[in-house]
Design brief:
about 240 residues, alpha/beta, Rossmann fold, six-stranded mixed β-sheet, four-stranded antiparallel β-sheet
Length: about 240
């Protein structure tokens, strides 16, 4: 459902994403791992058509991110690292605005809202303005806007950031449930999260993919915990 070929993005002299290639199939939950500044968010923004690549390309559900960005955007739900929202809007107003942008009207809109409000546990804050919400609830609203049109592909940048342990558990269970019918990429610094829900893990540093395997195989191959594996790969330490 996602095919990435030699995707590259530069910011002046800095190569943020350096010719990465990978695929994600339906049923996959791909954990995108790397230190800060590794290129994870930049790669996700290109897949979501928020940034154009300098070279290379990618297809999402068969649509090219450069040639068919509108079709790509219709096919994905994207949760940015710092999901933007209008602070003066209520949650209800914001989600209805998203429905307008997604072309959801009438019965389809009612069904989408009836599904997403309990799914993201935002019923108690539905009529509050976004600027009054806690970080955790703002993250839930961001997740709701990514899911509201029930897309086949999800690109989630730090989806559990700011959530308490119970909320993290709920979101992880939700991702696992949705993965049966979707292709999902998540970026996270929580290695426990990768072990619990990801079917694959890509480790990226300095814009390049350094490892692509299952979390379990990485631990076996590098003879350590996932944290130890992460440090060995990203810091270039020799393995045992």
């Amino acid at each position: 459902m996602i095919e990435v070929q030699k995707l590259t993005r530069r910011f002046g002299p800095i190569v943020a994403v350096d010719g990465i290639s990978f695929q994600v199939q339906k049923g996959d939950i791909l954990g995108f791992l790397g230190p800060n500044g590794a290129g994870k968010s930049t790669a996700m923004k290109m897949l979501a058509c928020f940034l154009p690549p300098d070279s290379g390309t990618a297809k999402v559900c068969g649509y090219d991110i450069v040639q068919q960005p509108l079709q790509v955007r219709r096919s994905i739900g994207y949760l940015a690292e710092n999901a933007p929202a209008y602070p003066e809007m209520t949650v209800a107003g914001f989600l209805n605005f998203v429905c307008d942008a997604r072309g959801l009207k009438g019965a389809a809109r009612r069904e989408a809202l009836d599904r997403i409000i309990p799914l993201c546990s935002i019923g108690t804050v539905y009529h509050q303005t976004i600027d009054t919400l806690s970080k955790g609830y703002k993250r839930r609203v961001g997740l709701a806007q990514a899911l509201i049109h029930n897309p086949p592909v999800l690109i989630l940048d730090e989806p559990t950031d700011g959530l308490d342990p119970n909320q993290k558990h709920e979101v992880r269970e939700l991702i696992l449930k949705m993965a049966k019918e979707k292709a999902i990429i998540i970026s996270t610094h929580i290695l426990e999260e990768v072990e619990q829900i990801c079917t694959r893990a890509i480790i990226i540093a300095r814009g390049r993919i350094l490892a692509d395997s299952t979390p379990q195989k990485l631990q076996t191959d590098y003879q350590g915990t996932l944290e130890e594996v992460f440090r060995k790969i990203t810091l270039g330490k020799k393995t045992a």
